[in-house]
Design goal:
Layout lengths: L1 H17 L3 H12 L4 H8 L8 H33 L17 H15 L3 E2 L5 E3 H4 L18 E2 L4 E3 L5 H9 L4 E10 L11 E11 L4 H15 L7 E8 L2 E13 L2 E13 L1 H6 L8 E8 L1 H8 L12 H4 L3
Parallel strand pairs: 1-5
Antiparallel strand pairs: 2-4, 3-4, 5-6, 6-10, 7-8, 8-9, 9-10
Helix pairs in contact: 1-2, 1-4, 2-4, 5-10
The structure holds phenylalanine (PHE).
Length: 327
């Protein structure tokens, strides 16, 4: 028995030295300490040893087992952590992180913003949940006015609405700032519309407002014409102004641009505009005898649809990555 123990010990020490990775370490453990391992087998033989010799042999066996355990413990620090590294294939190409893109509506809004900033306009902002006062009353649309029918409003309460246009930002701005005022106000607006290819219950507008002394409709036409030329990158862009009606502008107009596509050309409505109504100026404490102003409101979504050749407005809001990745 002693001889056997010596033999196993010599072999064990030699093999412990040869451990050089997680696998050889595990093999070593099984070979010596596993159910059928050499050390385990020797322990099993202890029963056949003469009772007087048992304590001595038992001691030797215990020492042998510790030796195996020590060998494993020593290598473990080196190879168990390394074993994970072994499985990392450093030659694999990296996973490219997916980088977000700007939404088509964002792209158009930023382009509009850039053009107006160059023309000296600042960017203003207002809440999407608006009071009836800012959304309607202050814009010369009293409670009983039939013009309210033009905009199917989503009411939060008697007094609170989801703003139906960005025009309330005109009021908020003029209450905070005396002329000269030159701002644009991009943002989301809401109307009680059933979604289809050309309607969405929410969409995006940019409001524009310019108030100063001696501001005329000629300024309105000049600024908006230059703006449209720059937005569509077309120096000879054709535009026309048609008479229209808005309670908060007088006179009012719609601006159309000539839109060429592969299917031919057509007039496309770009925005509503007009000279700020004297009642609106008076309501915010600006003297309409001294100051005048012009304003416009423009839908961004339709421009994005035309610009990128998208036929259904819902495509913009579905957040389908297959679509959005294309921009
Ligand atoms: N607020 C109007 C609309 O949503 C557009 C508009 C803005 C018209 C400013 C004139 C002046 O239809």
């Amino acid at each position: 028995m002693k001889e056997q123990i010596e033999k196993v010990k010599a072999q064990l020490l030699q093999e412990a030295d040869a451990i050089n990775d997680a696998k050889s370490m595990e093999d070593f453990r099984v070979r010596y300490l596993g159910k059928k391992g050499h050390v385990t087998e020797l322990f099993r033989g202890l029963g056949q040893v003469e009772p007087q010799q048992r304590p001595e042999i038992g001691k030797l066996l215990n020492e042998l087992r510790s030796l195996a355990e020590q060998a494993i413990a020593e290598k473990k620090s080196r190879y168990s952590a390394a074993s994970r590294e072994d499985q990392i294939d450093l030659t694999l190409p990296g996973r490219i992180p997916r980088i977000g893109r700007k939404h088509p509506v964002t792209l158009v809004r930023e382009e509009i913003k850039t053009i107006f900033e160059r023309l000296g306009f600042a960017v203003a902002d207002g809440p999407e949940v608006e009071t009836d006062y800012y959304n309607f009353e202050a814009l010369n649309i009293p409670k009983t006015h039939p013009a309210r029918d033009m905009q199917d409003t989503l009411y939060i309460s008697e007094e609170l609405v989801l703003r139906t246009h960005t025009s309330p930002v005109q009021i908020r701005t003029m209450l905070n700032q005396k002329p000269p005022v030159r701002i644009i106000a991009p943002g989301r607006v809401y109307r009680r519309d059933t979604p289809d290819a050309s309607h969405s219950p929410f969409f995006h507008q940019v409001e524009g407002l310019c108030v100063d002394e001696n501001v005329t409709m000629g300024d309105l036409k000049a600024v908006l014409s230059v703006f449209a030329q720059q937005l569509f990158h077309k120096k000879d862009l054709r535009a026309r102004f048609r008479p229209s009606f808005f309670p908060f502008t007088e006179p009012s107009a719609e601006m159309d641009i000539w839109w060429e596509s592969s299917r031919g050309g057509r007039w496309m409505e770009l925005l509503g505009c007009g000279m700020v109504h004297p009642n609106v100026l008076e309501g915010v404490g600006i003297d309409p005898e001294r100051y005048s102003g012009w304003a416009f409101g423009m839908g961004i979504d339709r421009i994005a649809l035309n610009k990128y050749g998208i036929s259904d407005i819902r495509t913009l809001f579905d957040n389908d990555m297959r679509v959005l990745r294309q921009f």
